[in-house]
Amino acid sequence: MSDVQVESKDQFQEESRVHEPGMPLPSELQVRHPLQNRWALWYLKADRGKDWEDCLKQVSIFDTVEDFWALYNHIQTASGLNWGSDYYLFKEGIKPMWEDDSNVKGGRWLVVVDKQRRIQLLDHYWLELLLAIVGEQFEDLGDFICGAVVNVRQKGDKVRTRFTSSSFVYDQSFGIFKWDFSL
């Protein structure tokens, strides 16, 4: 014979807590996972009749993993944006324009997505870049990252990372990126 104990249906229902719709979640389920930085999502809808800065709108600011996913899951995918539209995800306090003090001497990594591969690649590249940036996956480079950009263009889309310095070079001998302080 086994030592398995069978609980009655009443015992099981009494011991298990079922969340009732409309009731607040228990505090142990309300845990937030803070990010190292606060991030601002910006959206640009191009309009040739307006100044570029007038077309740029801040959508939201977040500083937790949960708020990132809540925002990401409720906005249009990058591949669903109209031609000439952009998303910018920048650290709070840095405007997504070259004239901002953090960007003025900055550099970028750029990936061009061929227009024929937009559906297959653009959303994947954009999400992977967002996750790497907000999740601080660039190791020691996190302090140098200003943000990320996705540009939706008819000739081909672009996904880029913006840095505070343009003295970032690729070391072919090791296949890694490094800072070049001699520039």
UniProtKB/TrEMBL annotation:
Composition bias, Basic and acidic residues: 1-20
MF-aspect GO terms: RNA 7-methylguanosine cap binding; translation initiation factor activity
Keyword vocabulary terms for this entry: Initiation factor, Protein biosynthesis, RNA-binding
Segments of this protein annotated with the region Disordered: 1-23
Record-linked InterPro entries: TIF_eIF4e-like, TIF_eIF_4E, TIF_eIF_4E_CS
Keyword Translocase applies: no
Keyword tRNA processing part of the UniProt annotation: no
Transmembrane segments: none
GO CC, any one term: eukaryotic translation initiation factor 4F complex
Family: Belongs to the eukaryotic initiation factor 4E family.
Protein name: eIF-4F 25 kDa subunit
Record organism: Diploscapter pachys
